[in-house]
Each structure stands twice: as C-alpha cells, then as structure tokens.
Amino acid sequence: MEVINIALRVAVGKKDIQKIQSLSEKPPESDEEMPEILKHFSPEEVPTEPDNYRTRLLKYIPAEVVVAYLTLDATIRSSGTPHIQLQWLIFFFCIFAVILYLKGAENVYKWKQLAISTGAFFVWVFAIGGPFVHLSMYDPLYGALLLPMYTIVVAKIEV
Known about the structure:
Layout: H1 14-22, H2 53-60, H3 63-77, H4 84-104, H5 111-128, H6 140-154
C-alpha cells in the first residue's frame, strides 16, 4: 500500500528536487541562499523525490475551504429564503480564503499551486451549482463535464 504524505501542503516538483540535490555539491552560505522548499522541512523530512500524481492531486484540493463553503452555504439555504447576494459573498470570500489559508496556515508559497487550488475550488462550486444556479446561462451539464476534466488534467501539472 502506498503511503501518501501530505503533511506539507507545498507541492514538491522535479525542480525542487534538483535544487535540493545541488546543495550537496555547494551548500548555501546563508539562510537567504537556502531554497524556499527546504525552509518547510526538518532535516529528516527533506524529500528525495517529486510528488507523484496522487499526492499532487491531494495537495491541490483545498478541502478545508470546501468544508467551510459547504457549512456556510447550508446555513444560508436553511433559512428558507433565497439570499442570492449572500451566496455570492460567501463564494467570493471562500475564493480568497483558499489563498489566505494555504499561504498562512499551510505555508504554500508557490503561486502556481495557489492558482490551481483556487481554480479547483471555483470548478467544484460551479459543478455543484452554488450561486451560479441563479445565472440564466448556467447549465449543470457544464459543471458535470468540467469537474472531472479539471481534476484529471490539473494533477498532471508540476509546480
């Protein structure tokens, strides 16, 4: 059984591994020369291989913000009256929360990963409907098609 370590949410790519390996030839003279990826690992945890497809996929999905969105959306819907503006406000709040949470709590510093995770949240909300159901051009078919395509393709991207 494969063990997936996502304790560190920063995706580890081939370039990160090359930087780490280059340090064995020429160690950094100061903390400023230390590659960013190493600042997030203890010496015993330094990766030796880039993340595989499954690990990247898990690191790219902003599950904590998805849970927050589901909770807030369910609360709004339980009121019994449609609060369209409030649904949009919660959606945009959570879009920003993806970046704030991943940067602040999970120390994700790679903008490409932050963009992928934000896109994943957007696509996921679009697929379940969210505030988009109030738009005349919205068709659930688009979300049903977009979600699996985004999920399959995005994890192929190394950051």
